[in-house]
## 1
Amino acid sequence: MLALEKFFDEHTMSVHLRVGTYPYGKKGHPGEWSLEKLEEEIMDNARLQEIVDEIIEKTEEDERSFIEISRANSTIVQYKDYRVVIVRPPVSDALELTAVKPLVKLDLDKYDIPEKVMERIKERSSGIIISGEVGSGKSTFASALAEEYAKSGRVTKTLESPRDLMLGDDITQYSKNFGTSEEIHDILFLSRPDNVIFDEMRDSPDFQLYIDIRLGGSSVIGVLHAASPIDTIQRFIGRMEVGMIPSVLDTIIFIKDGKIGKVFVLKMVVKVPSGMIEADLARPVIEIRDLVSQKLMFEIYSYGEETVVIPVTKESGKTPMKALAEKQVLSEFGRYSKSAEVEVLGEHKVRVYVPKRDKAKIIGTKGVNITAIEKKLGIKIDVAALEDTSRKELKRIGYQASERGTSLIFNIGAAGKMVDLFIEDEFLFTSTSSKKGEVKVNKKSELGAKLLSAMDSGKKIYIKG
């Protein structure tokens, strides 16, 4: 028996050894454990180094054990059922060792799985993601799933980093640490397994490999860390086109405290998002539903220039309008007025208050501007005048114009003053002067180019405030 094994009993999930501290162990099971002191003697460097040397020596002798990663200052070892992580200075401030041993190896029958969920696992074992927090039991469930597929006569293989799933001899376990993504990609496509379990997806290359395998038509189940089911999907947004997500990921199984928590399914539809009522606002929407209750939980769609994930259940207390209206409307109206204020009137309507002088140009001739804004944002907008008694009478302000680097400078001699800039009678924008009493405009911007052109052609530039 290794010296390390003496720290374990039937209740120990992991052992944590570090020079200068007492040995500690996590005891219990996923979702219910405590950190307990294992000895009353502080670990010194010589003793911990002996434990490390013994593990590496025995691993090299045992044909079923292997060193998964070996670097100058860290080593990851799979010794029989123990996954051992060794970290040395200067990566850590002292020599430390963490060893993890699975306490149980469960069959799928041991889980309380609803009939709808079991049917989806067995009949549609593609595009599944198993997620959960650290130590929630994700990998244990993935192992049970792999064994179930193998028992049903399917060729099942795993892709791990490191290899630590407890599986039978009829399941091949590939290590991502010893092969490139291209090599693994070729192996899987040429060997064509019925099911692939991709354990511990972490970085963008992992996600890209999962996406490639799925789009190639293979059945693949991914395992990754996430704090909630919806966070699982968030980790795919930005790594691929949003419209392709349901083709790659169609089922999320969230594990909590060693049990199946929520199971969400994804589907792409074309419809008017929840909270909007105009038929011409229909767009592609990814619906996320609870598999068991079929209750609509979230929607993903484009809103303005953003891709948003919106909860639509009553329990959430949020609607698309309440969640995004103020931010999106203020952003859009900032192009016309710096003094806009937003009042949410309902799930699909807002009122925007702007200075009286800005109202006409925002609405536009025959309402063309405000109609375009409503269509872009997908909501109804009332425009009302904002009473601003402090700025009712705008007067021309003297200024000195100059150029500095890439900027046009208008010095009005007053700090923190809100002013409007005009070319002749054409309003350009509203701004607030700096501490030096300056209003800066980038010469390369559209406004800067317009001002330079006006100066060159002899047009009058007015500042009012």
Note: The chain has a mean pLDDT of 84.
## 2
Amino acid sequence: MKLFRKVLIANRGEIAVRIIRACRELNIGTVAVFSDIEKDSMHVRLADEAICIGPASVADSYLNIPGILSAAEITDAEAIHPGYGFLSENPQFAEACKKSKISFIGPTSENIRLAGNKSKAKQILRKKGIPVIPGSSGALQDKKSASAIARKIGYPVIIKASAGGGGRGMRIVTEESVLDHSLSAAESESLTSFGNGELYIEKYIPQIRHIEVQIATDNSGKTVHLGERDCSIQRRHQKLIEESPSPISTEKLRKKLGDYAIKAAEALKFRNVGTIEFIVDGDDNIYFMEINTRVQVEHPVTEMVTGIDIIKEQIKLASGLPIAFEQKEVTVKGHSIECRINAEDPYTFIPSPGKITFLYQPGGPGVRVDTHVYSGCTIPPYYDSMIAKLIVRGRNRMEAIERMLRALNEYVIEGVKTTIPFHKKVLAHPDFISGNFSTSFLERVKII
């Protein structure tokens, strides 16, 4: 099998730049697509070709399937990389690519559809002996059945959207008196966000760690995992800081997580690159949470400690090439931390679009910046507010923390507000330094 000759990137921002760089190192031509307000964006400047696919609205541009496929056909692109967000987990888009005889760089449409139905995925994995959180065996039928399940597993419970993600369609319920209202609110939000109002219910476990395992599977079904990432520093279920390995990880816990991840991938007949997400409680009990059928925002921390280029692996696997290494060859060396730098007020987290009037990015040993912004560029109000990812690697976790603090102090972005001050406070907090945190860390310590 040969690598693709030309790849279209159906995305924008730092992930589009990241994919273009990987393609260039593989000697693959690139096509950028952009909305009419982003003609001066970095991904447009770096790609070999670029095509405008519509106005600023995401519905008319980055979610415009006919426009993206037309751009691929016009430029004779053999494959499309969806990045993350937008159409990356849209099974209809993956199917449309296949019908147009264009390779989709990612899991199959069947993988995406099954993973998107979280309650069904959990049913399959439960039968395979993978622990899942106690809750409904499938989508909720009505409020009466939801009430019965909640009473059986005990309050507090958490309602989740079957097709959900990013904290949308999610409600924590502490007592039965508010269950009906929470179900209605979650269903409404799920319909608005995903076009699907199906819900499921689980036991709510406080003080958990959110730990995910990166996997890669070739077309023969061979699966390897690349270790774990800890994504427990969150605000309203949105990840803010990630690291690898997890501060709570032991060889025993890592092996168990990895074994579960590979078993899940095999049970779901997974292909290409993805992430199996778990929660781990205070007694190191592991529960499957969900599977992500795309590259993750936080993939660089895994790259930093394993030396494996995950984007290149995606492209190679989609080309039909086998995984070129064995599980025993995957080693985790050192420690890596990533801070998501958002154009937001660091105290209120309100988006702060505008023109970047001055930019100085940190460097030095063990420092990586994945970004698409430059001095003089404008951050539009139409898209996600993340403008950069600051990633560091150290010989151990303490050195990684010290290096991240040094890099954050060097980082200068003027013209828009950013979350850099927030990250400095988290990285310097004694509980973060000691590894004593969970997904409720920000609610507990009141950093800002």
Note: The radius of gyration is 21 Å.
